[in-house]
Amino acid sequence: MLTHEKNALLTQCGPGTPMGQLMRSFWIPAMTAAEVPPADEPPVRLTLLGERLVVFRDSEGRVGVLEENCPHRGASLFFGRNEEGGIRCVYHGWKFDVDGHCLHMPTEPATSRMCQNVKARAYPARLAGAVLWVYMGDAKPVPELPAFGFMDQPDAHLYASRWHQECNYAQAMEGELDSAHVGFLHQMVNQTDPDHQALTGKYFQEDTAPEWKILPGMAGFMACNGRRVDGDKRYWRLNQFLLPFFTMIPPRPGDAQLVRMWVPMTDERCWVICVSWRPDAPLNEAELAAWRNGENSHRKVIPGTTTPVERLDNDYLIDRQEQKTISFTGIKGIRAQDAMVTETAGPIADRTREHLGTSDMAVVAMRRTLMEGASQCAATGQPHPAAANPWLYAVRAVQTVLPQEQDVATADDFLAPARGTPPAAPRATETA
Amino acid sequence: MLTHEKNALLTQCGPGTPMGQLMRSFWIPAMTAAEVPPADEPPVRLTLLGERLVVFRDSEGRVGVLEENCPHRGASLFFGRNEEGGIRCVYHGWKFDVDGHCLHMPTEPATSRMCQNVKARAYPARLAGAVLWVYMGDAKPVPELPAFGFMDQPDAHLYASRWHQECNYAQAMEGELDSAHVGFLHQMVNQTDPDHQALTGKYFQEDTAPEWKILPGMAGFMACNGRRVDGDKRYWRLNQFLLPFFTMIPPRPGDAQLVRMWVPMTDERCWVICVSWRPDAPLNEAELAAWRNGENSHRKVIPGTTTPVERLDNDYLIDRQEQKTISFTGIKGIRAQDAMVTETAGPIADRTREHLGTSDMAVVAMRRTLMEGASQCAATGQPHPAAANPWLYAVRAVQTVLPQEQDVATADDFLAPARGTPPAAPRATETA
Amino acid sequence: MLTHEKNALLTQCGPGTPMGQLMRSFWIPAMTAAEVPPADEPPVRLTLLGERLVVFRDSEGRVGVLEENCPHRGASLFFGRNEEGGIRCVYHGWKFDVDGHCLHMPTEPATSRMCQNVKARAYPARLAGAVLWVYMGDAKPVPELPAFGFMDQPDAHLYASRWHQECNYAQAMEGELDSAHVGFLHQMVNQTDPDHQALTGKYFQEDTAPEWKILPGMAGFMACNGRRVDGDKRYWRLNQFLLPFFTMIPPRPGDAQLVRMWVPMTDERCWVICVSWRPDAPLNEAELAAWRNGENSHRKVIPGTTTPVERLDNDYLIDRQEQKTISFTGIKGIRAQDAMVTETAGPIADRTREHLGTSDMAVVAMRRTLMEGASQCAATGQPHPAAANPWLYAVRAVQTVLPQEQDVATADDFLAPARGTPPAAPRATETA
């Protein structure tokens, strides 16, 4: 349960808010690389952390992310002309490059210095790991990109998709960190059917009340949840939470790795970007086809949009007959099921009325990590230190089976890939 | 005319408002019995007095009315599974019975006491008189149901329907108590046509400015309106207003009785539930067919919904040619005509700018009765005394013709069925 | 750049605001004469300066403009019956004439004086120059209509159309006074094509940074903008701004004159009324056909509505391929292009973040003239003096070519038709 004030602290990410400041410490994933238009093609719109932007690629292929409204009198640059090194507002022909510099201001006299003095708000952008990253903070120089395992993989090893959800980012993300729900929300009605067992795993049925162990780190925490299985053993899953909104859950053996990103669009809507990847091999055609069709780790969207097919305003196309006999929800798609339980709590869940149990330990840890980070940034006026340590993101979500009495915190072999490796020489942080 | 403050007092019914507290003294009609889903079938949504609820029937046929959001983390119970004695949230499998008790909390360890301590907000519900009644107040024990004449009639004597209107309940109800409008709004253009006379009655044309006499009672008042007719006589109609939002108007001779209920959904929308009934005989096929088609006392809706066919956002399908030559409004349906004049005053009418005349005496009495009741409940913190006296609702709306000079308040034979009969032994009120 | 306070002063026009008071000094153009319904036909709705009204024509052909809501209990007079000298509310049969007097109040007793005491809010209305004018101010007697050149022209010399834009009036009007944009927004991509040159004029390409000279007058100002052309000459265009929202731009040689009117509907939406006219000849079929089709000075709307075909919520049907090879915007219609650049700045542009250049001198002058007028009206409680001097509106927008060194303010022959002629005898102003 949170007070109204803490709920606001957690959920509000616009310019000038403490959580907005924390978020702006980090590179923000904005869209998939495939959604970025080609060089000299028309810009696309993007709303991020409450700010309306346009994204384009200039003649040299550099990506520009500018405030949507022209700094002159506010006309939308979405309707601008992307040509010869920049985007030109069609109202008066003012032209801006990817850095926001004004290249041409033809309505001013030749003697005017105004062109040098007016700048469009521009954010640095990078393409890496099939994702477009945007830096909306103040640090100079800008930090390095986070060193997620997928960031330097070849294209064939990567698949990224994006959709939007009709609720605050924190609420959407809570559904991801909350391992206890897996055994319910996503289960099949007839659990003895081996196909259905395959989907959610029989371990989830053996113990519905996992034990939690939160192992904090510099950029977030590892949320270990252990279920008693096979008599005297415990099945441990280790989920990752990484500031400000990254999550990883362990894949089934043989499946691809994944990272999900829960990015505030506005305070009442968020983007979800999911990257599936294999560190050692190209993705295979079967999994690619399933993801493109919105199965498993990805969500089914109306082609050419980020709008899910099963969504809040159509009751997720629930099939009540199917709910009785086939799946627990009657809703198609693991991701749509997740969206249903988080979106129906309202655009911003009223956390003053919730009742948290032991199953919500990772949710509590996530909120605390975010709120403490936001308060720290607000107090110091500095970016969060994790932003200056990209290696903190070179970690994995993993799973294993241990003897029941073993403390997971001591299982070093298991934890090693989840902990990552600091660089050989100590790094100075950005704020030092 | 009301001040802004009094208009707010009259119209705001959410939790914590004085009018909301008054309303919560009483059993609230929520939907028709036919709209309540069968046992173990999926729940339906319902918004009442600003609260979002779900309605379902458990395996034993008991009706449950729960807050829509799960007390855990707020997922909607509309998407829940209604099975074996309760509704189960699909997020984590928490299960609640019709009283809001948690029956199962599988994500908590076996040793946890949390299941006993968490309760879903649940409201007592009863089916009676073809209507589902919900009690949203605090009184213990809950009061008896109001003893409307139709409450214990056999099914064949009853017909109930429900629709919604796009304005505050008080405004919608004002149109019902306002007898003077009948001779205008619902009239035909050619009043000499005997068919048209039959519809609204020639008495309404003989005297367009009825005299009013308000006779107050413990649960509301009788609004008598008398028109000079046939030379030296007066045609008296006696409408009933019963707290907090029940009205009765006298049927034409031979027609069925009716009760209308103007129930706040939100402050800017209301439900209308209408029960037509015959105390002594089954309803006949002709009147049932007409009502199902949205004629006379009921409203035409899009099948399977509570959305009227003729409504605000389509200008009530007004036919301007028909308005010139056939009906006064050019709008089909008595109820649609009523909705038009009340809804077009805005979601909440600005009563600071109105000009009330002698024709508005019942409207004024209704507002005063409600506002005094609300103030009294707010001052005492107690339910309204009428809620503890169900017999006050066992009354009728009646009509007669009296000599013009006779005081209607002295016409005891006429008034007897409108006054009801107190129980033999005096009852203690809930607040005593 | 304006402060938030000044932006509010400029843009808010509802009852009781300073700018609203300034506007109510003047006759407000409300719709085209062709849109006013015939005598005894149903009324139409109109929102003006934030007030919801109905417009009708009584049996004698007089135009009535009344508040939409009946003064009794607020039912909409839009659904009223327009018959025999007035409009009758269908709720209780109250009937009002074009002056708002109550002609009949049949629900009150014969002895009641209420009919004489209740008045519907009514605004004087006049038809002139193919436009319906409404006076919403307090001055008694009402001022004369502004003496625009087109006001007493025969019908065949006049064409008027109306559409709405999704932004504040001031923002929409800024696009009109802003001559510098013409050479960009409306240009063709291939400027050497003689057809394209014909459209926007080669002079606009020769000098993209016109020099400005603002010549203030009693009712507004002349905004002269001069472009260096043909070596040693200057091409001068003289646009007119006349309080509170009238603009004129000079037509191409041989083309019809025009006046545009940027009338607040609400603070976030405006009407645009455009009158094209010829002082000395009937309009020709070719230009009429083009205007009816939404070309040149007028806008293409969905027939029977004021809703543009190319509009904000459909991205103005931009054709990105056409934007590359044919027109600068890829948007069809000069007026749609203007709407795009003004509407996309938001319903009310945030003028605290703009960057004005020398090209914006007329925009600055217009804002200052309006804000000074509003402040003056608020301080004195009097109408603006220009409202009492109709001759101030008998002016033209003109253009010429002068030697480059000549001061346009000294070009008396050029300025004469733009200055207008005061009446022979001095007039007392309304406020004297």
From TrEMBL, chains A, B, C:
The keyword Nucleus does not apply. It comes from Hydrogenophaga laconesensis. Keywords: 2Fe-2S, Iron, Iron-sulfur, Metal-binding, Oxidoreductase. The keyword Cell membrane does not apply. This is Phenylpropionate dioxygenase-like ring-hydroxylating dioxygenase large terminal subunit. Residues 33-134 form the Rieske domain. InterPro entries: ARHD_Rieske_2Fe_2S, Cholesterol_7-desaturase, LigXa_C, Rieske_2Fe-2S, Rieske_2Fe-2S_sf. It comes from the Bacteria.
